[in-house]
């Protein structure tokens, strides 16, 4: 909330246009009142007169039958994404720039539901239900407002419907169809697919809460957060296989990155993985290995490569070698992954 009084100043303007708006906390993108689902233009006028509600930085606008609007929420910045979305869904006179520099396209509602990331590989939501944050809502944390990039409220009567061919394929299951016994599993799988489009766990929690809003029997905020954090744990450690052909960062990728400056250590590690990956421990005898030409290096090179693997955590020493007793040391493999394996890549627009 701030002294800008966005809702007090602009709520009546939306209400006069026949749109059901309500106050929103723009930072959390959550309604600032209970009963927001029952918003009407008349109630919006009344809420704007209440000081605590009029101080709200954000305007929430009901989507779907209540407003006659469907929004294409383009959750990626850049002109290429706007152009690709307009090409797919059809031209519209109303294009909105969000406070974070992304885009929203408004169309006339034609029965579309609320679908979050329904198209494989595209960071696009179809909002034909629920609510959106409308201009000129203000994000204090970003120091920026939602603005009409093209058009405005005066253009709503000229809005076209979405090209029906644009919604014909690639849809995931709607949240509205998720039953009580399926909520956690469905939300977790959905979070796993969406994790690669998020830069941090808080963003994933936010989009998870948005998708779960449409459940017929809602989950608690704690359950939603647990599902999102669990999925982020797989994403951040390179173990997220859902929705892609391979994990974004594999154990092999991590090993290669860690040993790029020590190619002999990398090669020796591959030897050990080939011959000892299924063993709890194994001996390393550099002289015997050199004489057997496995690998075909001098003893000292094998020792140096072994020491690099120990120093960087790819080998764990169980028993150190004893020169006096002529005993080889015993070791075991120890895989290491970085704290985050998220590559922060956003797919290129299909344009």
UniProtKB/TrEMBL annotation:
Signal peptide: none
Top-level taxon of origin: Bacteria
Organism of origin: Paenirhodobacter huangdaonensis
Coiled-coil residue spans: none
The protein's name: DNA primase/polymerase bifunctional N-terminal domain-containing protein
Entry-linked SMART domains: Prim-Pol (SM00943)
Annotated ranges, domain DNA primase/polymerase bifunctional N-terminal: 11-167
């Amino acid at each position: 909330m701030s002294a800008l009084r966005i809702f007090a100043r602009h709520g009546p303007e939306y209400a006069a246009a026949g749109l059901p708006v309500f106050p929103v906390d723009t930072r959390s993108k959550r309604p600032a009142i209970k009963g927001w689902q029952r918003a009407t233009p008349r109630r919006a006028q009344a809420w704007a007169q209440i000081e605590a509600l009029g101080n709200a930085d954000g305007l929430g606008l009901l989507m779907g039958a209540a407003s006659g609007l469907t929004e294409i929420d383009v959750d990626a910045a850049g002109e290429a994404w706007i152009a690709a979305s307009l090409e797919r869904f059809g031209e519209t006179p109303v294009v909105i720039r969000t406070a974070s520099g992304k885009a929203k396209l408004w169309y006339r509602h034609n029965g579309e539901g609320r679908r979050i990331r329904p198209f494989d590989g595209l960071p696009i939501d179809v909002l034909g239900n629920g609510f959106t944050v409308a201009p000129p809502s203000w994000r204090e944390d970003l120091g920026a407002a939602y603005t009409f990039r093209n058009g405005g409220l005066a253009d709503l009567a000229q809005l076209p419907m979405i090209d029906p061919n644009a919604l014909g394929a690639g849809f995931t299951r709607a949240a509205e169809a998720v039953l009580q016994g399926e909520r956690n599993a469905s939300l977790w799988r959905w979070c796993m697919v969406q994790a690669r489009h998020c830069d941090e766990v808080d963003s994933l929690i936010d989009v998870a809460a948005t998708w779960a809003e449409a459940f017929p029997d809602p989950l608690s905020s704690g359950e939603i957060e647990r599902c999102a954090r669990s999925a982020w744990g797989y994403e951040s450690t390179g173990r997220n296989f859902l929705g892609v052909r391979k994990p974004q960062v594999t154990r092999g990728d991590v090993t290669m990155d860690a040993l790029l400056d020590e190619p002999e250590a990398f090669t020796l590690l591959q030897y050990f993985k080939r011959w000892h990956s299924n063993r709890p421990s194994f001996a390393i005898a550099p002289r015997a290995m050199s004489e057997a030409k496995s690998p075909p290096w001098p003893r000292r090179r094998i020792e140096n490569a072994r020491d690099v693997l120990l120093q960087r955590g790819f080998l764990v020493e169980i028993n150190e070698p004893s020169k006096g007793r002529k005993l080889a040391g015993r070791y075991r493999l120890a895989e290491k992954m970085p704290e985050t394996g998220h590559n922060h890549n956003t797919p290129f627009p299909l344009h």
